[in-house]
Design brief:
The protein has 10 helices and 11 strands. It has helices at about 15-30, 45-50, 80-85, 95-110, 125-130, 145-150, 170-180, 195-205, 225-235, 270-280; strands at about 1-5, 35, 55, 70, 90-95, 115-120, 140, 160, 215, 240, 260-265. Strands 1-11-9-10 form a 4-stranded parallel beta sheet. Strands 3-2-4-5 form a 4-stranded parallel beta sheet, with helices on both faces. A 3-stranded parallel beta sheet has the order 7-6-8, sandwiched between helices. Strand 9, helix 9 (about 225-235) and strand 10 (about 240) form a beta-alpha-beta unit. The protein is flat and about 60 Å long.
Length: about 280
């Protein structure tokens, strides 16, 4: 069996930053530490912090007044920040700087009178937070098919933004369709997909051909991990998202298989190493 490890893979700078911030808070806090949503979308990371006493919540109702609350790498809406301040919850912001920039773009565009078409996955933590910056000035779309039904004729100025962890290929198709439909569509000063996401997708697109299978190490709720698998399939190579060794699809492997292994931006490299070692051992 031939195993190829893709580079780059694993933690991006924003994920590293969020995890390091939470580590520092856990080490210095005198009481429970709460995190609004998962710190990053990876079950191994979340379980490790759970074991260390960190409490992950999806509602401020589950956070006591005056408690320590950390905002995850995906960011939160202004409403959540305001509600936390009203209850004197001590907040620490671990939002990825790239996501912060999208929040800033959304505020600026809305303040300038633009209606913003936001390309993103409905319900994703990052998307919910960004849309909260200007809920009355946005329309969310997630699929190319939704562009045709989009009606922004009532808005004199229209712009677009996008989630940072999208599939670059799908996002480009949607943007191209939007530009055809809306001739005066304003391009953002910087494209939304972050460099780390783009580089990992480019590596899979370049390396996957010639392999029988691509294994993407990452949790099911990780958007960037899911999109790495999509990229592999887009170039004709089967791909499977695995959270760890227990998810390796043995029915798709033979002793002669050629396998490319990569991982999402929120997957610990130790999980990748464990999968590689397990395959080596057998």
């Amino acid at each position: 069996m031939k195993l190829t490890l893709a580079e780059p893979r694993g933690f991006c700078a924003g994920v590293n930053r969020a995890i390091n911030i939470l580590n520092e808070v856990v080490q210095s806090a005198r009481g429970p530490v709460y995190v609004y949503h998962e710190i990053v979308h990876n079950s191994w990371v979340v379980r490790d912090f759970n074991r260390r006493g960190v409490i992950f919540v999806d509602s401020l109702d589950d956070v006591p007044d005056n408690a320590v609350l950390l905002f995850s790498a995906h960011g939160v809406s202004p409403e959540i920040r305001e509600l936390a301040a009203q209850r004197r919850i001590r907040t620490i912001d671990a939002t990825c700087p790239r996501v912060h920039y999208v929040h800033k773009q959304m505020r600026n565009l809305a303040d300038d009178g633009y209606h913003v078409v936001f390309i993103g996955k409905p319900g994703h933590d990052e998307v919910v937070g960004v849309l909260g910056e200007a809920p009355g000035s946005t329309t969310l779309i997630s699929k190319l098919e939704e562009v045709e039904a989009l009606d922004v004729s009532a808005y004199p100025k229209v712009a677009y933004l996008m989630q940072t962890t999208l599939s670059a290929t799908e996002a480009t198709q949607i943007v191209d369709a939007l530009r055809k439909k809306i001739p005066n569509l304003l391009n953002p000063s910087r494209e939304g997909i972050c460099d780390a996401t783009q580089l990992r997708q480019d590596a899979v697109r370049r390396l996957a051909p010639g392999h029988d299978l691509v294994l993407v190490v990452g949790s099911p709720n990780s958007s960037n991990s899911q999109n790495l698998a999509k990229v592999a399939r887009s170039v004709g190579v089967p791909a499977v998202l695995i959270d760890g060794v227990e998810d390796i699809p043995w029915n798709m492997l033979t002793p002669e298989s050629s396998v490319l292994i990569t991982s999402g931006a929120s997957a610990p490299d130790i999980i990748v190493k464990t999968c590689v070692q397990f395959l080596n051992d057998i």
